[in-house]
Amino acid sequence: MSDINWKLVHDTAIEWTSEAGQYIRSKMKESFSVSTKAHQDDLVTDVDKAVEDFFKNKIVETFPNHRLMGEEGSYESVKDLEGIVWILDPIDGTVNFVHQESFFAISIGIFHEGIGMVGIVYDVMRDELFTSIKGNGAYINGNQIKPLTKTSLNESILSFNHGWVLKDRRLEELVKEARAIRCYGSAALEIAYVAAGRLDAYISFNLAPWDFAGGSVILKEVGGLATNYEGKELTFLDKDTFIAANPSIHHDIFERFLK
Amino acid sequence: MSDINWKLVHDTAIEWTSEAGQYIRSKMKESFSVSTKAHQDDLVTDVDKAVEDFFKNKIVETFPNHRLMGEEGSYESVKDLEGIVWILDPIDGTVNFVHQESFFAISIGIFHEGIGMVGIVYDVMRDELFTSIKGNGAYINGNQIKPLTKTSLNESILSFNHGWVLKDRRLEELVKEARAIRCYGSAALEIAYVAAGRLDAYISFNLAPWDFAGGSVILKEVGGLATNYEGKELTFLDKDTFIAANPSIHHDIFERFLK
C-alpha cells in the first residue's frame, strides 16, 4: 500500500466534492421556489443522504478497497481505521443549511492506517475550498495557507457555542481573556478557519469523527493541533470533546480551562 | 426638499461604496505581503480614515447640502438629523478586519428629517451588497429579499456576543430557548442577516448609530423591527442598547428577557 498515489486520491475527492456542491446548490434553488421551513427540514435529510450515497457509489466504483465512514448510515460498518477510510460529513452545519442556506460544508478526511492523508472542507455556497495532502501544506482555493504564527490568548479569536458556557462555567474565563469569541455553527468550517488563521481556536464538548476529520487533517498541515479536552489524540472512531488551536495557545486552553 | 431623487442618492451611494470596497481590498493585498499583527492594527486606522474621508469629499462635492456622521471624527459635528444626514461606518467589524481579513462591512444609512431613506451594508470581501430605498423593499446583490415570515423563539437563530451573557444573565434563558445562537462580530452584517432571514434576531448592549443605521433602514423594508431594549425607537444620535428582530419574536425577546 506504500505506492498509493495520494495526489490522485486528493484530486479525485475534490472533483467529487465539486460535483456534490453543484448538486446541493441546485437543490437549494429548487427548494427556494416552494420553500417553507418544513420543506427545508425534509430537504436536509434528502440531500444529506443523496450526497453520502453519491460518494459511496463513486468510492466503490473507483477505489474498491477504500471504506467510507459517513454520518448518514455508513458509520456502523466502520469500527477501525485499517487500510484506507474516508470519513465524510455530507453536510456539516445542518441548522445553517436549513435556516441560512449558507455557512455549511462538505467535510472529508481520508485516512491510511489511522493517519490523516487528505483533508477537504468545502463551503458550498461561498465556493471556498480548503484542502491538504499530508506533508504538502494546506490550501484555500489553491492558494497555500501560511503556517500558523505565534499568538497569545488575549489577542486570540476563539469559537464555540454559547450553550457550552452554560454547561461548563470554566469557559466564562476564556470569554473574559480572549480578544473575541465567535460562533458560526459549522465545526468543519470553524476548524478550517483555525487553519486559515481566521480563528485561533475552536472548542466543542461533543463532536463526531465526521465533524472534525477533514478539518483536523488540514489543520495539521499548518502546524495546528487538534485533540480532546485532555490534550489526548483523537481516535477518529468515537465522539469526543474537541479543541483545535494554534499551537501557541492550545496547551494554555486545555491546561487552564478545560482539563 | 420633497422632490429629492432618492434613487439617484441610492445609486450614487452604491457606486461610492463599490469604489471604497475596491480600495479596501487593494489595501488588504498590500498588507498581506508585509503583514504582521501590528501592521494590521495600523492598517485599520488608515483605511477607516481614508474611507470616511473619501465619502466626505464625495458628499461635499456632489450633495453639498447633505451632512455626514461618521465613526472616524465626523461624529462630533452632527447633533441632530435635520435635513439629509449620512450615517457611516467605514469599517464595521474592526476585529474581524484586522484578524480575519473578512466578515466586515461598509455601513451607510441616509436619513431625511430623521427618517431612514436609503440603507447600504456591503460585505467587502464576500462582495455581498445589501441595499434598500424606503418603500421599495430590500435587496441582496440586486435580488429582492422576501418579507420576513412568522417564526417562534424555539425555531429561531439569534446572534449576540458571548460576553453579553456574562454581563446580563437573562440572556442565558435565550440561549436555552432559541434553536441556535451565532456570533459573527459585525453588527451591520448581523442586522443585514436578520433582514435576509439568516438570523431571526441580533442583540447588543451597546451600539453607536453608525453600527446600526444602515442595517436598520434595510431591515424595516422586510418588516423587521429595530429598537432599544425597552422596545423604544432608536434616536440614531446616541449609543444605545439594541435589538433587531423578526417582528414575530421581537416583542417576546424584549418583554421576557431584556426589559
What does this structure look like?
The structure is a homodimer of 259-residue chains. Chain A has 259 residues and is α+β, with helices and mostly antiparallel strands. Chain A has two domains: 6-144, Fructose-1,6-Bisphosphatase, Chain A, domain 1 (2-Layer Sandwich), CATH 3.30.540; 153-258, 3-Layer(aba) Sandwich (D-Maltodextrin-Binding Protein, domain 2). Chain A has helices at residues 6-34, 37-62, 94-100, 162-167, 171-177, 187-196, 209-220, 247-258, and strands at residues 67-70, 84-92, 105-112, 115-123, 128-133, 138-140, 143-144, 157-159, 180-182, 201-207, 225-227, 240-245. Chain A has a seven-stranded mixed sheet, with helices on both faces. A five-stranded mixed sheet of chain A has the order 9-8-10-12-11, sandwiched between helices. In chain A, a hairpin with a 2-residue loop joins strand 3 (105-112) and strand 4 (115-123). In chain A, helix 1 packs antiparallel against helix 2, helix 2 crosses helix 3 and helix 6 (187-196) packs parallel to helix 7. The termini of chain A are far apart. Residues 33-37 of chain A have low confidence and may be disordered. The A-B interface holds A 37, 95, 99-102, 126, 151, 155, 157, 161-163, 165-166, 172, 175-176, 179-185, 193, 198-199 and B 37, 95, 99-102, 126, 151, 155, 157, 161-163, 165-166, 172, 175-176, 179-185, 193, 198-199.
